[in-house]
Amino acid sequence: MLNISKRGQAMPASPIRKLVPYAEAAKKKGTKVYHLNIGQPDIETPKMVLDAVRHSDFKVLEYSHSAGNESYRKKLVGYYKSVGIDITSDQIIITTGGSEAILFGFMACLDAGDEVIIPEPFYANYNGFAVAAGVQVVPVTSHIENGFALPPIEAFEQKITPRTKAIVICNPNNPTGYLYSAAEMEQLKEIILKHNLFLFSDEAYREFCYDGTQVSAMHLKGVDEHVVIMDTISKRYSACGGRIGAFLTRNKSLYDAVMKFAQARLSPPSFAQIAGEAAIDLPADYFDTTKAEYQSRRDLLVQRLNAMEGVFCPNPGGAFYAIAKLPIDDADVFCQWLLEHFSHDNQTVMLAPATGFYGTPGLGKQEVRLAYVLNKGDINKAMDCLELALKQYPGRI
Amino acid sequence: MLNISKRGQAMPASPIRKLVPYAEAAKKKGTKVYHLNIGQPDIETPKMVLDAVRHSDFKVLEYSHSAGNESYRKKLVGYYKSVGIDITSDQIIITTGGSEAILFGFMACLDAGDEVIIPEPFYANYNGFAVAAGVQVVPVTSHIENGFALPPIEAFEQKITPRTKAIVICNPNNPTGYLYSAAEMEQLKEIILKHNLFLFSDEAYREFCYDGTQVSAMHLKGVDEHVVIMDTISKRYSACGGRIGAFLTRNKSLYDAVMKFAQARLSPPSFAQIAGEAAIDLPADYFDTTKAEYQSRRDLLVQRLNAMEGVFCPNPGGAFYAIAKLPIDDADVFCQWLLEHFSHDNQTVMLAPATGFYGTPGLGKQEVRLAYVLNKGDINKAMDCLELALKQYPGRI
Fold this sequence. Notes:
By secondary structure, chain A is α/β, with parallel strands linked by helices. Chain A has 2 domains: 6-44 and 286-392, Aspartate Aminotransferase, domain 1 (Alpha-Beta Complex), CATH 3.90.1150; 47-279, Aspartate Aminotransferase, domain 2. Helix content of chain A is 37%, strand content 15%. In chain A, strands 2-8-7-6-5-3-4 form a 7-stranded mixed β-sheet, with helices on both faces. Chain A has a 3-stranded antiparallel β-sheet with strand order 9-12-11, with helices on one face. A two-stranded parallel ribbon of chain A has the order 1-10. In chain A, helix 3 packs across helix 10. The mean pLDDT of chain A is 96.
């Protein structure tokens, strides 16, 4: 008998994608499924971004520099300056999506058995990268009652051990939509300085803040050696399939270590680097328009949810996710039931059970994550389905 | 003091890319550098492959399926059939380059501390993926005197311990160009069955065999559970920058485990999947033309090398690499000297010291790897440089 590795066995299935077979079965029956389960926006990728690739005229699809094209990194310096981040082109490594930036951070900063503290609920794939790196995820719980604000310092300090090496935040947050305040960012700074930790800040949704502006981890003073930004163009320009992200650090020895991981995989994808570079030249009002669209979707979604009996959804300050508490027995059962046993006018809705976003077993059983990545007409229809489904669901409590 | 991980410190710098700063300095002085150090072909990517991307008309650059587009995987079934490999679309996972396929294999089959045996000299980045996965590379030495043939069974068996989980081969081989015979493949089959090991077969250069045809690991009978193919379109279609590869296995539980790693990083790059899918429709004579070009370059390179006094270069049967033994004291010093201190008509040549391809310290000190990825005019000029350099080099022995 030939066994796969313990690591391969421990690797979690994606909670966002595990219901996919039920959605496929529903579609085969002719049911229209509204996908609020996954952060794949319906927003069109800007034409000039796609055209930059379509009009490229090279003859050989070559490897790029392992850190990404120098021209792209130099233009990114300007982009980051526009969001108040001072960084040089040799402090940026272009990665294959934000995913690879996260993996590189775990690999280069933590050894097998080391611990990383993450406020839960958190982006589920952090679990996967942690298993790949042999790292232990230690959750610190945030709560729906206060909109998933950063847990107090004491909650972090209770979790810190000699093996703790880093804290991961996602700001604004996936899956909660929470936007950390300046005071909360200062609180994080205090913890990482006191306990000598890395701060990994996933800032994929930087531009999508509706009630205030983002305080980047790189806006914090005096923590240059500690801070890593994991970034991506996926959500910013609706370019998820490009698989272009970035790893940013001012810590030279960390940068050099990550470059060795980058060299091992040779280079990030060449086509989408062209797209990413072109995106920096988008007109200044691009984000205004996109943000206004997401904000109006958020307003609609949150209003519809809170109008349903027994449903509570805090108003998320950023990103394009919300977590709602539903009057149900079990979110996993309910989300599967929506696909297997429910339809309204031949339509249903796909949601992500929040259980997959918590590290602590048993939490999130009454919560679901909704991504407001569909247009308002579709969101309304999806909410019609959800409202009716909650009345019919046998496990309603 | 904030330390990077031990893993980050142990990560090897790419021996292929570490001389890059010296090459850049030479170019700044106005010296033309012939790059025989890296497998970046000058062969044009087929126009229809690039055009497929340029003429694509989607509006949203979406995530693909984590295993890659189904349409692409289905077409790949036909491609693999054409090279004698029976495989289904749900035994294929599209990866971000062959690099990711290798990493996935290490991650899903081996745990930290497990051992993988690799005939040396071997593709240096296997070291990097092994460090990332916490896996120990155990080299078994092949020798330039017999053209780097597969070491005898006994040499493998001496290296096998209870922690040995897999053997990696690259066939035809990078860096040696050696093409394993049917008898050697049967020998490998015997070892993996007897000791219950995985066989990872890197078949990036499958089409480029000049003195016979490749026996794929998936041509072997009775080892379906054991065999993994790591594949890539990089060299096949001169599409290195696309970052599209494939992980193939008929072992269902291994496939399922690798799918979880694939889901964690969401999807492979979308643009280049279009390119890869289009490439399958290239006319049948595409490889004839490309192979003939590489074969004529090989013939020229090997003839020029063996005509130099004190140089020995076995004739490689495939891929586009050769290893030559030179009358020098130290290949690392020599390769750096070529860039720093030598020029002929304002030209020099960049080679890869073979030391970086050996796992055993001290081996390969008189050997260099040459990639015949340049046209014959450039190869001739590069050989003129090398011939003269060997006469002038102070460390000649």
